Amino acid sequence: EAHLLESGGGLVQPGGSLRLSCAASGFTFSSYAMNWVRQAPGKGLEWVSAIIGRGDSTYYADSVKGRFTISRDNSKNTLYLQMNSLRAEDTAVYYCAKDRPTATLPYYFDSWGQGTLVTVSS
Amino acid sequence: EIVLTQSPGTLSLSPGERATLSCRASQSVSSNYLAWYQQKPGQAPRLLIYGASSRATGIPDRFSGSASGTDFTLTISRLEPEDFAVYYCQQYGSSPGLTFGGGTKVEIK
After folding, report:
1. Cα dihedral A49→A78→A104→A58 (10° resolution)
2. A41 preceded by a cis bond (ω within 30 of 0)
3. Hey, is B12 helix, strand or coil?
4. Which of A26, A95, A111, B76 is least enclosed by beta carbons within 10 angstroms?
5. Across residues A37-59, what is the average pLDDT?
6. Chain A residues with CB-CB distance to B44 below 8 A
7. CA-CA distance, A68 to B15, in Å (whole number)?
8. Least CB-CB distance to A47: which of B39, B56, B98?
9. pLDDT score recorded for residue B94
10. Is the Cβ–Cβ distance between A120 and A38 less than 8 Å?
11. Is the pLDDT of residue A80 over 80?
12. Which of A46, A108, A112 sits opposite B35 (nearest CB)?
């Protein structure tokens, strides 16, 4: 059974940076595309970014393109999200989510972490 | 971008009743690539349905999904107490441009 554990959230000022991590276990990490999905307080879900298994293709929502960078270290079974130039509207719980095996594009998410809260405020 | 509109916003029902949730897409969703998720307060979402009608692993058969053109439906045949939650649809037919619907809350009447 897949297990995903996010970390790295916290309070950051507007314009600041933060790096989230997601430690994966229970499956062959390098075989799966991985995603970040966020949820603003009391709001719905928003897909943020995806990276395929080998790590050589990445995808972003327009709302974060140019500010966020997704990456992965398959030797450590860990997914990352580097967030720069943070804005108040980036405040949300950020979930990492596992995609289909051998996917070359993001599809749907069959396992989710418990999430980590990012608060952007002065 | 494909916009997904879920209705109703809130559904008030009693345990044992049938729940019908709607998700309408602003344009055709390629290959009926639509998923449904359940989210309970303070928890991560859980995948219920993918490909519009395929149940995810471990999902009870009281949950079913269907598609007709740009209209998608999640049906819960008989509500159990643990089914009261928020439900989201998500399309992946225009990947990598993934989008979610705004959600439907199923509450106890």
Report:
1. 40
2. no
3. strand
4. A26
5. 95
6. 95, 112-115
7. 43
8. B98
9. 85
10. no
11. yes
12. A108
- Strands (DSSP E) contained in A1-84 are 3-7, 10-12, 18-25, 32-39, 45-51, 58-60, 68-73, 78-83
What six digits make up the tokens of A46?
């928003």
**A57: which 2 tokens?**
């293709």
> What residue ranges of chain B have pLDDT lower than 50?
none
- Give the pLDDT band of residue A86 (cuts 50, 70, 90): very high
Interface of B with A (CB under 8 A): 33, 35, 37, 39, 43-47, 50, 56-57, 88, 90, 92, 95-96, 98-103
Residues with Cβ within 8 Å of residue B58, at least 6 apart in sequence = none
Amino acid at A53: G
- Which chain B residues are closer than 8 Å to A50 by Cβ? 96, 98
